[in-house]
Write a structure and sequence with these properties.
five-stranded mixed beta sheet; about 120 residues; globular; YaeB-like fold; 5 strands; alpha+beta
């Protein structure tokens, strides 16, 4: 399998989120497919299928933080790509690095954990 990105890191909070979502048995595989398809399309091929969005108003200049709303989770039968699983990640374009920050189910919580994002990326002036 050809490597799409230089590196893909999972931040510690992301690993905890995955454990919390273990009721979705296919999540680990679905995540790999998501990276190979959705993130590859958006960041490498420049194709926007309206599934990935930069998160506004974070006041972080680099890296850009994204929310993926289209995530096909096979454990959520009949939902397709709009499964309700959200993935928050940072893309460091110059290093070609993806950092997975947070994954959650929209049925459990409404929005991303902005304080977690800022904890990782807020640069003090």
């Amino acid at each position: 399998m050809k490597k799409i990105f230089n590196e893909i890191k999972r931040l510690p909070g992301f690993e905890k989120d995955l454990k919390r979502l273990k009721r979705f048995k296919t999540l680990e595989e679905d995540l790999e497919i998501f990276i190979k398809t959705q993130l590859n399309l958006y960041h490498k091929q420049g194709k926007d299928n309206k599934g990935v969005f930069p998160i506004p108003n974070l006041k972080i200049e680099n890296p850009t933080i994204y929310k993926a709303k289209k995530f096909a989770c096979r454990s959520l039968k009949g939902k397709g790509a709009i499964s309700g699983i959200r993935v928050i990640y940072a893309y460091h374009k110059e290093d070609d690095l993806i950092e997975l920050i947070e994954i959650y189910y929209k049925g459990d919580k409404e929005n991303e954990d902005r304080s977690r994002i800022l904890k990782y990326y807020k640069r003090e002036p």
